[in-house]
Amino acid sequence: MATLICSLVDHSDDVNWCAFSSTCLATCSLDKTIRLYSIKDFSELPFSPLNGHGYAVHSCCFSSTGELLASCSTDGTTVLWSVNTGEIVTVLQHPGRSPVRICTFSPDSSCLVSGAADGTVALWDVHSNTLCSSAAVKEGSVVACSFTPCGQMFVTGSTNGDLCAWSCPMKQLCTRKTAHDLGVTCCQFSPQACNGMERNSVYFQMASCGQDNNVKIWMVSQDVPSGCAFQLVHTLNGQSAPVLSCAFSSDGQLLVSGSVDKSVVIYDANKGIILNKLTHHERYVTACAFAPDMPFIATGSMDKTVTVWRIEDGTSFGGRVSQHSNKGSAVSNATAKKKLDSLNEEEKEKHLDAGFLKAQSRLCVSEWSEEAVSVWLCEEGLGELVTIFKANNIDGSQLLSLNKEIVTNDLNIESLGLRNKVIRKIEELKEHLESICTGIPDEFLCPINRELMKDPVIASDGYSYEREAIESWIHTKKHSSPMTNLPLKSVLLTPNRTLKMAISRWKNCQ
After folding, report:
1. DSSP letter string over 14-31?
2. How many CB atoms neighbour CB 141 within 10 A?
3. How many Cβ atoms are within 10 Å of 54's Cβ, its own excluded?
4. 42 within 8 A of 6, measured Cβ to Cβ
5. What are the phi and psi torsion angles at 112 (to 5°)?
6. CB-CB contact of 35 with 43 (8 Å)
7. CA 76, CA 373: separation in Å to the nearest integer?
8. What crossing angle do the helices spanning 334-351 and 416-437 adopt, rounded to 10°?
9. How much is the pTM?
10. Model confidence over 52-71: pLDDT tens digits?
11. What radius of gyration do the chain's Cα atoms show?
């Protein structure tokens, strides 16, 4: 049903979002850039990449005409770009300067909604580039948003798991509590509306996904007298880990989702059954999108690539058959695909090793027990040192602190050959550890010490930090934010359990 067309390998960090217009594909990344490709042959446009954000870009979307592109970032802004020139049209500063996690145009592109890490939702007038109104959800960060096809209502999803429906004047209509356990990651309405059974009632099909490993399909009613309501239709569990993104085809017949399990699943949106499962990506699939007029799907991943697929089912997309040459695209992107495959093999050689690494990740060396150190010594041909290391209670943390002087004077290893060998093996272990650390998702690293977080907490600036690091910062920096340098409204720190679980899952997969 799906055929690989090409893989785009231009981003230097995790890909966070993909979006199509009728002529272009846009992608954005932790590398602070947005890249634009022609849908004709998926060649990058001359003025791409777009550089204007100071931090990671989380989301991007096209206006209905395809002339404007919106992107939002950790830097607290939503930027509007001209798709024709690549120039910045305007910069919208989110209220409170909180990191902006999601942005989306209304169907007629007259307004834009942006959602932020502090839970605020802002409604912007696109023509005047002014803030119309803002509000906030009760808990969590706003990470998902989608308009109904009529444009009279939109739904937001938050990290606490709630879905909230709003009218465009920013009146909260209704909330579906804990729609996804541990948090919503994405939501999108089908472009097609459904007829309501009751008078004055209109129904819209909406998909959402979350940290509970599920994709859910809802019927959202827009009832004039009484507001709106969410009715669950399908719960799709075709993936074995948190689902990070979902998107409908332009006719509403297909639904695609991407997951932490590295898979992309295509569903029949009406029947809720799996049609195809794609497993091309090497790391988490963070983004997916359907082209509006062509049978294409784009998927983005933490492996820094964007993959474009062709849907072979002729009944989708209103029965239109694309004249786009699959063969031509594959040939024009053969070099890029070859480069991708080569990079992946190099990464495998760097990150995989025999013996001990198959049983225990070197990422957690500092947490090794004395027994784990003994196993490592045996695997490295240093079994005769096990007794000495055990006598000195050398665990993982101590192992990483050993140097030539300690090995010679404190451990009393008399053999020059053994001393040199153990020092060499420890240095190799440190180098290997550093190479793995370069592949840690950026959101798992504390912004202060750039180390993998063990006890992540959310500060009042909306960012997550390692508890010990932010507590020390607050004590010494007089309550300023490490990210914005602005005063912290509060020194209250909230445990980020969702992030902690995600880090734990990632460590177990290494």
Report:
1. -EEEEEE-SSEEEEEETT
2. 25
3. 11
4. yes
5. -135, 140
6. no
7. 45
8. 140
9. 0.65
10. 999 999 999 999 999 999 99
11. 25
